[in-house]
Amino acid sequence: MEEWWLQVRKLAPEELRRDFDAVVALACLGFDSGRLAQLHSLNLQPDLLGEISSRLHDAADFVRFHAICKPWCESHELPARKKTTDQILPWLLACNKKHDHSLEFRFAFSKSTYLAPAPDSCTRKNWVASADGTAVRYLTAGLALHDPLTGDVTRLPPFIDGQWEEENPSGSIVHKDGTVLLYSKYMGGYDGTTKFRAALRRPGDDEWTVVQRTIESTYYGMFCIAYHSGKILVTIERKLWHVVTPSIDDEDVLVRMPSSMPLKYDGHYYEYDHVLESCGELLWASVHLRTDFWRGARDLSRALLVVVHALEEAPDPCWEAPDQRWVLKKAISLANLVLFLGWPNSFSVEASRLGMNGGFAYFTWHCQNEYGVYRYNFIENTTELVECLPQGWHCERCTWLIPQPTIAPLHQGLPTTSRSNNMIRSKKRCCGP
Question: What is the rounded average pLDDT of the residues 171-191?
C-alpha cells in the first residue's frame, strides 16, 4: 500500500476503515465506471474525498472521479485539494498521421490513446510549447497562437517591417514569466554554415528584439536553443554553444563541450540534445547510444544513456567577466526530480508532486521503425522500456504536455468553451499498444 494511502486512511473514522481498505484496493486498479460506482456506494466523508482528489495524477481518473456526483465534484475545492502541489502526469502529443485534422495524445503510464480536433493549419513545424509543459499552441500566419483544445486564439504583436522577412518561425517557447521566444534556422548550403534567427519579446517590451547569427557547422548537427537569465543559448553542433545577449552588440560568449561528455571513442554515439530550466539552473540533457548496438527497440534498454550537465559561472583569472561552462550533474542531485525530455520543450517536476519516485528521465526513441517510451534511472544507470508506442506514432521526439483538466461547478451547467474534458471522456480510442 502506498504511503499516501496509509496517511489518508488515518483520516477515516474507525467504522469506515474496512470501507477505506476497499477504496485502496479499487483505486490501485484504476477508476473505471464499475469501480467508481462501488466507491460511490461507500458514502465517503468530505475529508476523505478531498484527500483522494488531491492524489489523482491521471487526467482521465481526475475527470471521471469528479463527474460522479455533486459532493465528489466539489471535493476539488476542499482544503485538502487546495493545499496540495500535486499535479497530473504528462501525456505525449503528436500529430496523428491517419487523421490529418486531429491531435493524438498518448498516456504512456496507462497505455491509453486519445484524439482531439486540431486547427486546420496544424503542422508539426510550428508548435509553440510552454517551458513548463502546461500548454501547447500552434503558430499560424499573422503570428496567431491557437489552442488546439479550447479553440482560443491569442494574437502576438506583429514584427516591424524588415525584422522577419522569412516565413513564420519554425519553433517557439513561452516561458512562465510571459517571455516569448520564436526561432528558425536555415542551412547555409555547402559553405559549412547555418543561419539562425530568433525573436524575443519579454513582458513590458514594446517590440520584438531580433537577433541573427551565422554559425559554423561541419555537419547537420542537433539544433538546440534556450532562453535563460536574459540570454539566448544556441548550438548547431554539440561542440560549441553560443550565448547571445539580446540588444547588445558584444561578441557572443562561447561555451565548449565539457570533457565529461561521452564520445564515440568512449563507446557511445551522441544522438539527441534537450535543454531545460530546473530549480533555477539551465540543464543540458543528452541522450547517447552504445556503438555496438544494432538491435530493435525492445533491446534498447541495454544501450541508452542519459547525461545531464548544468551551466555554471566560474571566475576566470584572465578575464574580468566570469567564465561559463557545462558541469556534470551528479546522479544524487537529480534524485528528487523527474525529467521529461521532448521537442520543442523539456521540463522537470519534483517527483513527490507526481506521486512517484525521482531520479528518472522519460523520453521517446525509435529504432528500425519501432518507437518507444523509455525511462532512464540516474541512480542505477539503467534504462527501462515503458511501452512500445502503437502504429501511427512516427515522431522521434514527441512533445510532453501536462493536462490541465477543469471542473465546472454543477450549478453552472456544462462548460461550452473548453473541449479538453470532453476529449478525456469521449475521445478515448484504444488502450494498450
Answer: 82
